[in-house]
Write a structure and sequence with these properties.
Layout: E1 4-13, E2 16-26, E3 31-35, H1 42-50, E4 57-62, E5 65-66, E6 77-80, H2 92-102, H3 107-120, H4 136-148, E7 154-158, H5 166-183, E8 186-191, H6 194-200, E9 203-208, E10 211-216, H7 218-223, H8 228-234
Parallel strand pairs: 3-8, 3-9, 6-7, 7-8
Antiparallel strand pairs: 1-2, 1-4, 4-5, 9-10
Helix pairs in contact: 2-3, 2-4
The structure holds adenosine-5'-diphosphate and magnesium ion.
């Protein structure tokens, strides 16, 4: 289960009011995209949900439980970063297994989970390689594999494809939406790319200056943008 609700979530950095107050409902199993221009607070909002930043005020409910003051590890969420954050000296296998080892899982459980993730992500033949001997797309898949084995309530992606070239990006988009169809786990995906938002999302959250401008299905936003900003950003003719 991965239902997430934000209630009056606020974040200030010093005097900078980055998130003045966000209310948002994410249903279990939904693929939600946070989209908006650079600096609008997408990463901050995702990091607040992940627990990598503390809220200044407000509630973050995961399956009805307020986790706003819980440590990241207690939230049951897995974050996938743009920079992959892989360990260069470890094999793909050990990169994927790392969190499970830290959690004290048995060798047999670790092996089953790593092999299963590798199968889903087409990494079975690469498990003994090190990240330096992989393509960008493969590295991103390792980062996703590391998230999958933890069986999270939700996956959080922060611009995971922006380091990849255009052709590969299109491929990885399909892989991530395919993964969502297979796992049916809640995914929150941050991007500044309108095309990614329009093609991947069940539900788009358009942000500007830390505020939610509109929430809706891609075609609803396109056909009925709430304002000029959304229309312009989504590329709607209205
Ligand atoms: P986005 O991901 O949409 O590009 P961010 O969430 O990274 O935007 O940043 C939103 C705003 O918050 C920006 O003005 C940024 O400079 C500011 N900000 C983000 N993190 C910090 C921080 N740790 N300290 C101070 N300001 C920050
Ligand atoms: Mg960002």
């Amino acid at each position: 289960m991965g239902a997430i609700r934000l209630e009056k979530v606020k974040k200030t950095f010093g005097t900078l009011d980055v998130i003045p107050g966000v209310d948002l409902d994410i249903n279990d199993g939904e693929f939600v995209v946070f989209v908006g221009p650079s600096g609008c607070g997408k990463s901050t909002l995702l990091r607040l949900i992940a627990g990598l930043e503390d809220v200044t005020d407000g509630k973050i409910l995961i399956n009805g439980v307020d986790v706003a003051n819980e440590a990241p590890a207690k939230r049951g969420l897995s974050m996938v970063f743009q920079s992959y954050a892989l360990y260069p000296h470890m094999t793909v296998y050990n990169n994927i297994a790392f969190g499970l080892k830290m959690a004290g899982e048995s060798k047999a459980v670790i092996d089953e989970k790593v092999q299963n993730a590798a199968k889903i992500l087409n990494l079975t033949d690469y498990l003994e390689r090190r990240p330096g001997a992989l393509s960008g797309g493969q590295r991103q898949r390792v980062a996703i594999g590391r998230a999958i084995v933890r069986n999270p309530a939700a996956f959080l992606f922060d611009e995971p494809l922006s380091n990849l070239d255009a052709a590969l990006r299109v491929n990885m988009r399909l892989e991530i939406t395919g993964l969502h169809q297979e796992l049916k786990t809640t995914m929150i995906y941050v991007t500044h790319d309108q095309v990614e938002a329009m093609t991947m999302a069940d539900k788009i959250v358009v942000l500007q200056a830390g505020r939610v401008e509109q929430v809706g299905k891609p075609m609803d936003l396109y056909n009925n943008p709430a304002n000029k900003f959304v229309a312009g950003f989504i590329g709607s003719p209205k």
